[in-house]
Specification:
elongated, SWI5-dependent HO expression protein 3
């Protein structure tokens, strides 16, 4: 029974427990300081001597009293339910120790129930609840990150739109001032036209007065009549001149008004083109922002790869330096051994030469 309880105990300790209990009608969450041990049940062979009607024998009470008690090393008792997740905020954690429920089914010994069945079911249920809460927490975290990205992008677009709006406002003010200048010029031309009309009326009045005076003084001298006709001719000439001038001025005003209308139409067209450019600029700015974020991620990856390469290169250089240091330390010893070998070979060569010389001398003396 001890071997079977140990894996269940380790599994129970590896699960993050979220326990709930009711205290004075308020739902309070609590995390126990230690996970309670599973009860050790006595699976020794117990003889049940009951009759067919289900009446227990008198020694059942004695067996129940002598049964192995439940091992409980923690005051916390695990309930068999969990509370739904609070979506409006993080989990509430109660640090107070949990009270022991005397009527809990964990504290009642029962030798006839299936061993560890309720415990396994409860552990599976808590594990599933923990996985579900972890998935919900991960989904909420991802949703908050997406919301933060969308808010940042919206703020950037708002700043761009505000700057473009200020630029367009400056252009609109400039156009309004230009229109005001042209309106003032038009008013001046109208005033000039009114002056010319008054002059023409005055000339017509003078001509009428001259004709009236000519009719009244017909009996006067021919000189006065000639002068009157001459004045009439001059008045007609002035009238024609005034008409021609008025016509020219009117044509000039019409041309200027036509040019002003054309300029206004051109300004409207440019305003529409500016609106289209603003829309395209917003789209391009979004694309550039995506490209910049992608390039930032690529640059971070390349930086990580470069750091890894530098670490590997540093390790290889350290190994090469250590090997070179060991070779440098072993080089004098090898040089001494080589010098000894050279000295031995020179000595051997001298001995062989001496032997060959002695042999040649002996051969020469014999011959």
């Amino acid at each position: 029974m001890g071997k079977m309880a140990r894996p269940m105990e380790m599994r129970a300790r590896s699960v993050v427990w979220i326990m709930f209990r009711r205290k004075k009608g308020v739902l309070v969450t609590a995390v126990p300081d230690s996970v309670p041990y599973l009860p050790e049940l006595n699976f020794s062979r117990v003889l049940q001597r009951n009759d067919m009607n289900g009446a227990p024998w008198p020694d059942d009470a004695l067996r129940t009293a002598n049964a192995t008690p439940i091992r409980s090393k923690s005051p916390a008792v695990m309930p068999s339910y969990t509370s739904p997740r609070n979506v409006s905020g993080p989990f509430a954690v109660d640090k107070s120790p949990m009270a022991t429920d005397e009527n809990n089914s964990w504290a009642r010994p029962n030798h006839h129930s299936t061993p560890n069945s309720k415990t396994s079911q409860y552990i599976d249920k808590i594990t599933q609840e923990n996985d579900r809460l972890r998935r919900e927490l991960l989904a909420e975290k991802l949703a908050r990150e997406d919301e933060a990205k969308r808010v940042s992008a919206a703020q950037t677009r708002a700043e761009d739109s505000r700057a473009e709006y200020q630029h367009l406002q400056v252009l609109a003010d400039t156009n309004a001032r230009a229109i005001e200048r042209k309106d003032r010029k038009l008013e001046e031309l109208r005033a000039t036209l009114d002056t010319e009309i008054r002059r023409r009326k005055m000339a017509e009045q003078r001509a009428e007065e001259a004709l009236k005076m000519l009719g009244d003084t017909r009996s006067e001298t021919q000189r006065q009549l000639a002068q009157a006709y001459e004045m009439k001719g001059l008045a007609d000439t002035n009238l024609e001149t005034a008409r021609d001038g008025f016509k020219r001025i009117t044509d000039g005003y019409e041309n200027k008004v036509r040019l002003i209308n054309q300029e206004l139409n051109e300004l409207r067209r440019k305003r529409l083109e500016d609106a289209d450019k603003i829309k395209r600029q917003a789209i391009i700015s979004d694309q550039l922002q995506h490209e910049s974020s992608r390039s930032t991620r690529t640059e971070a990856k390349l930086t990580n790869l470069m750091e890894a390469y530098k670490k590997e290169h540093r390790k290889e250089m350290d190994a090469l330096i250590a090997e070179a240091e060991s070779l440098r330390r072993a080089l004098p010893e090898k040089e001494r051994e080589a010098q000894k070998l050279v000295d031995a070979m020179v000595e051997t060569r001298d001995k062989m030469r001496w032997v060959m010389t002695q042999h040649e001398r002996q051969t020469a003396s014999k011959s």
